[in-house]
């Protein structure tokens, strides 16, 4: 069109004024066409999402008994004891043949600190999702004090479990609200957990302290947290909940090695009186655990204390030594980890 209009001016069919108007019209038409096809693409994406939403809504309707947690009566279960048992637990995803976890059998005693380690894809996070009842075992049972966890009303069960997952979320509210949510606020406890997880210095430097708003969505004065600070805040949330069971899935993945070591130096305060499960492929946490399970290809390959597994010289020892080499090469005081 530009070439045609230019030729028309050259041959005297169009004046310069008409030429200028037509160039503006062509630019406007181009913009409209681009916007039209962009909107067609948006409509296509929204249609896909609507299909997904309708499928989810249908699934919720068909499985309404799962969500009717308030209608199920609370069952009698020892509130002060938290012993977890895996009995022949296996899991595989729908329409797949290879199990993610195969025939898991182990017991976590009340108040015991357990480390679960393994390479990426070994099944560690799937195990967490089974414990949190996001998945159900394909085979076998998970018991809490001898009771199948899937028979316990969901609200009752989740009140006993505090968790920090890899895909945690920090909301655009205050630091305090991100920790407390709908629980009763206690500033003394909030300050204690903030100190334990290493955010006290950050909070003290803020003008509004624990009432500081995060992000800009609700306040122009909102602050941004780094990945490591966000992870610490998620951990403070789990500690404030003060549950008998604490599950930490890669709780230090966004922290540098020194901050990671400082956090786990407070491990006794973090896990005091709790049945604690640490899922990680970074092994600095395992030295603080009473017992360690090393998972490989969906099965328990090794188990024992840190010292016992190091003496065996198997998968765990190989992973630990390789990480020591990383700390050594990056100049970190790796002897802290080697003790």
Characterization of this structure:
- With 339 residues, this protein is of the alpha/beta class.
- It folds into three domains: 2-62; 84-170 and 225-338, P-loop containing nucleotide triphosphate hydrolases (Rossmann fold); 171-224, no CATH class.
- Helices cover 44% and strands 17% of the residues.
- It contains 14 helices and ten strands.
- It has helices at residues 2-10, 16-62, 64-67, 124-131, 154-158, 175-180, 187-196, 200-204, 227-241, 257-265, 267-271, 306-312, 315-329, 335-338, and strands at residues 84-91, 101-108, 113-118, 139-144, 147-148, 161-164, 245-249, 275-280, 291-296, 299-304.
- The strands form two sheets. The chain has a six-stranded mixed β-sheet with strand order 6-7-8-3-9-10, with helices on both faces. Strands 2-1-4-5 form a four-stranded antiparallel β-sheet, covered by helices on one side.
- A hairpin with a 2-residue loop joins β9 (291-296) and β10 (299-304).
- α1 (2-10) runs antiparallel to α2, α7 (187-196) crosses α9 and α12 (306-312) packs across α13.
- The longest helix has 47 residues, at 16-62.
- The N and C termini lie far apart (76 Å).
- The model is unreliable at 330-339 (pLDDT under 50).
């Amino acid at each position: 069109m530009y070439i045609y209009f230019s030729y028309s001016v050259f041959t005297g069919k169009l004046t310069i004024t008409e030429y200028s108007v037509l160039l503006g019209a062509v630019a406007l038409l181009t913009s409209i066409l681009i916007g039209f096809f962009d909107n067609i693409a948006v409509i296509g994406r929204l249609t896909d999402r609507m299909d997904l939403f309708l499928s989810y809504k249908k699934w919720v309707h068909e499985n309404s008994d799962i969500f009717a947690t308030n209608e199920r009566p609370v069952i009698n279960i020892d509130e002060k004891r938290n012993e977890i048992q895996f009995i022949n637990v296996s899991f595989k995803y729908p329409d797949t043949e290879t199990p993610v976890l195969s025939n898991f059998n182990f017991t976590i005693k009340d108040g015991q600190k357990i480390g679960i380690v393994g390479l990426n894809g070994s099944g560690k996070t799937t195990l967490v999702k089974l414990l949190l009842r996001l998945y159900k075992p394909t085979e076998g049972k998970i018991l809490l004090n001898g009771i199948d966890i899937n028979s316990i009303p969901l609200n009752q069960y989740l009140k006993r479990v505090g968790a920090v997952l890899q895909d945690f979320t920090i909301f655009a509210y205050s630091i305090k609200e991100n920790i407390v949510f709908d629980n009763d606020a206690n500033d003394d406890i909030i300050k204690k957990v903030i100190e334990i997880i290493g955010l006290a210095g950050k909070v003290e430097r803020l003008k509004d302290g624990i009432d500081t708003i995060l992000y800009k969505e609700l306040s122009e004065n909102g602050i941004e947290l780094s990945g490591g600070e966000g992870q610490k805040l998620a951990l403070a949330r789990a500690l404030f909940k003060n549950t008998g069971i604490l599950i930490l899935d890669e709780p230090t993945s966004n922290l540098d090695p020194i901050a990671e070591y400082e956090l786990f130096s407070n491990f006794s305060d973090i896990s005091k009186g709790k049945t604690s499960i640490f899922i990680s492929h970074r092994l600095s946490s395992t030295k603080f655990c009473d017992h360690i399970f090393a998972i490989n290809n969906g099965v328990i390959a090794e188990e024992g204390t840190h010292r016992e597994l190091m003496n065996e010289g198997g998968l765990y020892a190989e992973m630990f030594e390789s990480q020591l080499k990383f700390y050594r090469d990056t100049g970190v005081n790796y002897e802290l980890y080697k003790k």
